[in-house]
Specification:
By secondary structure, the protein is α+β, with helices and mostly antiparallel strands. It has a domain at 2-112 and 167-179. The protein is built from 2 helices and 11 strands. It has helices spanning 2-22, 96-111; strands at 31-39, 42-50, 55-62, 65-72, 77-81, 89-93, 113-121, 124-133, 136-143, 149-156, 160-170. Strand 5 and strand 6 form a beta hairpin. The longest helix has 21 residues, at 2-22. The model is unreliable at 19-26 (pLDDT under 50).
Length: 182
């Protein structure tokens, strides 16, 4: 149960991250980033794509299970697909209420943050921010050279510590078919 909860939390964070990326709260350039998350329940691989035109995709691989989500600001929709559920996609409108909710979360994080300074992580010069929110904390390190997360450490009382690190990065435009439902 704990592993399933962490998987759901990880995927939800992926969707929120994808929305933020597509909403240009993050970089506005195309990229592909592969992350490795380590927690007490195992290792999760997360691959994020952004086309620079309002569409983002996140693929989450946890053991043999893979799911993905696509955020499309042009269509004002988020799609989530879990092949274990027959390959059908769940569509959610990216309406003003959801945008305000996610923006509010971002605003709350910014208000509850403090700077961690600068350091180099895996060759990337980074700027760090520490967040304390609802009983958990996050140290978030963004690469000054690439404009995306290079590493984060999340401490949650029920889920323990999750360390997420960038494993690879490319600034090439992703294949447009990645933003189509399979």
């Amino acid at each position: 149960m704990r592993s399933e909860l962490q998987g759901l939390v990880s995927f939800s964070i992926s969707v929120m991250t994808m929305w933020q990326v597509a909403h240009a709260a993050q970089p506005i350039h195309p990229y592909k980033a592969v992350y490795e998350e380590k927690s007490s329940s195992g290792v999760t691989l997360r691959t994020q794509y952004y086309d620079g035109k309002g569409r983002g995709r996140v693929e989450v691989q946890r053991g043999a299970n893979q799911s993905y989500g696509i955020a499309d600001l042009n269509q004002h929709k988020i799609f989530m697909c879990d092949p274990r559920l027959g390959g059908s996609a769940m569509e959610m409108p990216l309406d003003r209420e959801m945008e305000n909710s996610l923006s509010g979360l971002g605003d709350a994080c910014r208000k509850a943050s403090r700077p961690l300074g600068k350091k180099v992580i895996d060759g990337h010069p980074c700027t760090g921010i520490h967040y304390d929110m609802d009983g958990y904390s996050v140290d978030y390190w963004e690469g000054d050279d690439i404009g995306i997360r290079v590493m984060s450490v999340c401490n949650h009382p029920a889920l323990g510590t999750t360390v997420t690190k960038l494993r690879s990065y490319s600034s090439e435009s992703p294949n447009p078919t990645l933003f189509q439902l399979k």
